[in-house]
Amino acid sequence: MSTDDVTPPSVPAPVPAVLPAAVRTDPAARVAADAEPEMVGDDPGPDAAEVTAAAPGARGRHHLDAAVRGADTAALTARVDALEGALTISGERADPDVVASVGAAVDRVRDRLVIGVDHTVVALVGGTGSGKSSLFNAVSGLRFADVGVRRPTTSRVTACVWGADGDALLDWLGVDVENRIERESVLDADHEAALRGLVLLDLPDHDSIAPEHREVVDRVLPQVDLLVWVVDPQKYADDALHSGYLRHLAGRDASMLLVMNQVDTVAPEVRGELLADVHRLLAEDGLPDVRVHGVSATTGDGVADLRDALADAVARRSVAAAHADAEVAQAARLAATQVGTREPAPSQLALGTVVDKLASAAGLPAVAAAVAAVVRGGSSRPPRLGDVHGDGVGLARSAWLTSVTQGLPSRWADDLRHRVATTPELRLAVTDALTHVTVTARASPVARVLSVLAVVLGVLGLVGAGLVVADALGADPGWVPPGVVVAALLGAALVVGLLASAARRRSAAQRAERVLAEGRSAIESVARARLLAPTQDVLAEHRRVRELVAQAAGAPATR
């Protein structure tokens, strides 16, 4: 076949995150009756039935399932759950376009997680006669892939899965049920553990004259984690490979290997020179760091090293996991634009300022002062709590909202404004609460008693003083009290009068303070229920959304 007949393919973009839902097939039908695998080599190992699958409930099956559907799928599932939870809590407080975009990403990743992202997909790609299927059998240790004249249907992909739970992935990759096999069984113990999670694909010949063969290759290549290009000593420089594929993959060195198969057909002394020439051609293709392995599927030379390289690939993160991770991270970054970096500080939720403003709107300080005046005796007008001024309540509410919405996105701030009480509702609640405040303006009993006593003592003192004066003027009052007694009575009257005044002032201050305290307590209860509680609810939801978005992004939330 002339290389001019081969049209260079358009290398597809990396594996998409949008995947069709998988349909699980019957495990019992994995291996067709006319394609029963045989073990390669002298060691018979497990028979085909043991290799493909034990009956449902067989020992070790759940262990293998758990080993494959592992950490990446679990971690991504948790992150997607967090992102979906953030959307649910946000509701209409997130921009609809953002919700639609993030929701679509969540759906795409969930579809991919149904399949799982913990398998490592490795594809053997090669031209006609490269020994690709023989290498497939050598690596798997099974005679499953058709070789040579036994390959009448080379447009089909053959797959070997180490471990279990690969059916959904193989369904999505388009591998027919009769062309798939599970390599690892409980009889292998841990002999195959290093490759657990590997999906090894044997693709059709990329240089086949049948266009459908090449279409299969072009469709599957973007979906694999590691491309293993299999060449032979005669055709390793074929331009159909280099210009048709390799040069279009420049920069993807880390996700490729090149295997020079059939090295047993080359003299040992020239093998190094042969592999060096392969390196030179790869460098010209823009792939200087692609690793090259010399292998013989016939003799087994180099197969162990190739299996070690595949084990290294299995130990790395899969392409599907990396792309799902990137999509979740991008969606989380988009969702993060709908929340602030943090909530208002606790000091901004203090009620002192708003209670002061509401108390002023209710005239509470003036009422307390009037109570004090009545108790002191400076006023006879009984005080009462009047109407609460709506303008003052509106200013108090506005000041509260300005403080607690700082740093919140506009939709969250708008929601908070709708959740707290309106100005009329707040005014009515304050008015109702103040009706339960007792306003007492009675004089102090102690002050009253002291005042009466001062008057009595004063009268007695003045009477005594009058008698003393009368006696001094020559009148005969009959009985004249001693001067010292008169002075004592007048002095006592003065002292008791001062005590009565102090008692009135103290009582006035106490009653005014009580009215003010009870009134503020009533107003604070209203502010706590109508302003603080709904504010805290909104901020708690905002904090939860922010934490969920940070979890989805894989970063710690800011406190």
Low-confidence stretches: 1-68, 148-153
Cα-based radius of gyration, to the nearest Å: 46 Å
Question: Based on helices, strands and strand pairing, what is the structural class?
Answer: alpha/beta
Write out the strand line-up for the largest beta sheet, numbering strands in chain order: 5-4-6-2-7-8-9
Helix percent band: 40-55%
Number of helices: 18
3D shape: rod-shaped
How far apart lie the N and C ends? 67 Å
Strand content: 5-15%
Structural summary, described in words:
This protein is α/β, with parallel strands linked by helices and 559 residues long. 52% of the residues lie in helices and 7% in strands. It contains 18 helices and 9 strands. Helix 9 links the parallel strand 8 and strand 9. Helix 3 packs antiparallel against helix 4 and helix 13 packs antiparallel against helix 18. The longest helix has 71 residues. It is rod-shaped, with a radius of gyration of 46 Å. It starts with 37 loop residues before the first strand and ends in a 6-residue tail after the last helix. The N terminus is likely disordered.
Helices and strands, with pairings:
Layout: E1 38-39, H1 48-52, H2 61-68, H3 71-90, H4 96-115, E2 120-126, H5 132-140, E3 142-143, E4 158-161, H6 167-173, E5 180-182, E6 198-202, H7 211-220, E7 226-231, H8 239-242, E8 256-260, H9 268-284, E9 291-294, H10 303-315, H11 319-336, H12 352-361, H13 364-376, H14 390-404, H15 410-419, H16 423-434, H17 445-472, H18 483-553
Parallel strand pairs: 2-6, 2-7, 4-5, 7-8, 8-9
Antiparallel strand pairs: 1-3, 4-6
Helix pairs in contact: 3-4, 3-11, 3-18, 4-11, 11-18, 12-14, 12-18, 13-18, 14-16, 15-18, 16-18, 17-18
